[in-house]
Specification:
6 helices; mainly alpha; single chain; 0% strand
Length: 164
């Protein structure tokens, strides 16, 4: 295996596994684009005829759209589905533009800021709730226990015995 083959394998794997993970769509796309450019430099495209070249370029672009859409965060599932429903699948730059339109639309609806930022804030709030709720419940239980202990020591029992 040549050094180029090893590097190509590594880059191809990286392009498949790269995910947005709360970053902006722009930053995520730029990362993928840099990987794709390096792949293109290491693997020159040589074809015997123009038809083969055009067909191979379309396959390559479709694979790149799949990489891009596959790495997007869940808030983009709707636009992801709309892009895949198109026939033919648009080129990567067009898919990127469609996702950016959705990001802008969602930002306007949600009151500014990118969806990636909102996803990150939601994750932070959820993590905080996972910490705060158990602490709050533990503190509440301790407070109730103390209050019950004080109540039983300070006042006599109000239960009356019935003779009967």
């Amino acid at each position: 295996m040549t050094q180029n083959s090893s590097r190509l394998f590594q880059l191809r794997r990286q392009s498949i596994l790269t995910c947005q993970n709360g970053e902006s769509v722009k930053v995520f796309y730029e990362k993928l684009h840099a990987i794709w450019q390096e792949i293109d430099c290491l693997r020159p495209h040589e074809y015997s005829c123009a038809d083969d070249g055009a067909r191979r370029l379309k396959e390559l672009e479709t694979d790149r759209v799949y990489d891009f859409l596959g790495g997007l965060d869940p808030p983009y599932d709707g636009v992801h589905s709309r892009i895949l429903a198109l026939s033919p699948v648009p080129p990567p730059l067009k898919a990127y533009a469609m996702v950016m339109e959705e990001d802008t639309r969602q930002s306007a609806i949600l009151g500014g800021g990118s969806m990636a930022l909102k996803v990150d804030l939601a994750r932070q709030r959820l993590a905080l709730l996972r910490i705060v709720i158990p602490i709050t419940m533990t503190a509440f239980k301790r407070t109730v226990k103390r209050a019950r202990g004080r109540a039983s020591r300070t006042r006599p029992s109000r239960r009356r015995k019935f003779s009967g």
